[in-house]
Amino acid sequence: MSSAGPLQTFPEALAARERRLDPYDWYADRRAESPLHWDPDRHCWDVFAYDEVKRMLGDDESFSVNPREATGFQPAGEQTFLLETMLFQDPPKHDRTRDVVDEFFRPSAVKSLEPFIAAESQRLLAEALDESDDGVVDLVDALAYPLPVIVIAKMLGVPAEDREQFKQWSDTIVEGTAGEEEDAEALQERQMEAGMALANYFRDLVAKRREEPRDDLVTSIVQADEDLTETELLGFCMLLLIAGNITTTNLITNAVRTFGEQEYWPGERQRDTAIEEVLRYRAPVQSMTRVAMEDVTVDGKTVEEGDTLVCWLGAANRDGTQFADPDTFVPDRRPNQHLGFGYGTHYCLGAPLARLEASVALRELGTEYEVRPAWEDDDLEPIESSFLHGVRSLPVRLD
Ligand code: HEM
Questions:
Q1: What's the CA gap between 370 and 365, in Å, rounded?
Q2: Distance 65 CA to ligand 1 centre (A)
Q3: Among 11, 66, 218, 392, which residue's beta carbon has the most beta carbons within 10 A?
Q4: Which residues line ligand 1 (CB under 6 A)?
Q5: Coiled-coil regions in this chain (predicted)?
Q6: Of the options 3.10.350.10, 1.10.630.10, 3.40.50.11720, 3.30.420.40, the CATH number for the domain spanning 12-398
Q7: DSSP label at 113?
Q8: Rounded mean pLDDT of 89-103?
């Protein structure tokens, strides 16, 4: 089967609101038929089973992340920077790039941010409550959305006085049109402008840190490898900003949505395993794409060189061959080898940071307040994304 260029669309079957909010029955039905299916409309394979998803993410030689290699995929605007980043590089180049920042994202390195994350969480929640006249706040607007941008801006070394402007650019880049008056073209234009503004901002910051090093991530990137090109440097900054924001937003939101449904709130001892279970049960990133570099046979079907494969992490995470009682939320599940942060070479660089942010945010929420759902399931609106999984807003009552 041949691949016909870039993968642009989300499976039709998942487009409806209910399916976006809860795609798991659909995954289960597909997986029961076969671990992988060819979709003639999108010209790609969808992979739903744990072992096969893991195999594809774990085998860089047969399955590449480099979309230009086989599909000619060309993202527009600010996203062209992303093509030069580790996310779209195969080894050995990937490993050299990732080495530059690896140590700054280790659990021991991000740990020092804990007091900052706690203080910012408290501030954001207090501000949101101040503005609310009935004690109900939108968890997304109040906390889950702003927190990750504030944290990564601080890590990169964006001075406090620039963070609001920085956040606005970053918000524009990830904004969707849904529910707004504006048409897609106008939004695209604004996003392009915001991308350019951010790139210029980073260009300046990089120049400043070259002149006058500080104790921040941009300085570290600049010093780590003097041979990095300007595009690579900007790519780094953009990737860290874009890869870590809405993903972490959705982890925090999916956690509170799930805890609310389950009438459960984790105590100190269960919080971290409960977060792992959210990453399994409602993975913020539902799918990752790969391109076959050679012909491969899976379940008697031939994936041809050049074919695109969509690996459904969210489906693999509900595979009963790997997880007992896969559709039940088990807050202290152990072991829990979920694929929520991917697997293998591209395993999420920011996983320790995302875990820390979620853990501290949920701790601050739960210790400062009693959190009660103020949403009706009928009111939940899914975010419109081809690979992210979450809701646009989640009203909660804080007492
Ligand atoms: C809950 C939050 C997050 C989730 C669910 C998530 C998920 C993922 C996944 C599934 C991948 C694998 C991509 C692939 O295999 O093609 C990935 C890669 C990556 N993530 Fe995250 N991520 C999160 C937060 C973050 C944060 C906070 C950062 C950094 C600030 C970050 C930076 C990256 C980078 C740089 C990569 C590429 C790594 C590589 O190619 O080696 N992520 N992430």
A1: 8
A2: 14
A3: 218
A4: 57, 65, 86-87, 98, 152, 239-240, 243-244, 247-248, 251, 284-285, 288, 340-342, 346, 348-350, 353-354
A5: none
A6: 1.10.630.10
A7: G
A8: 90
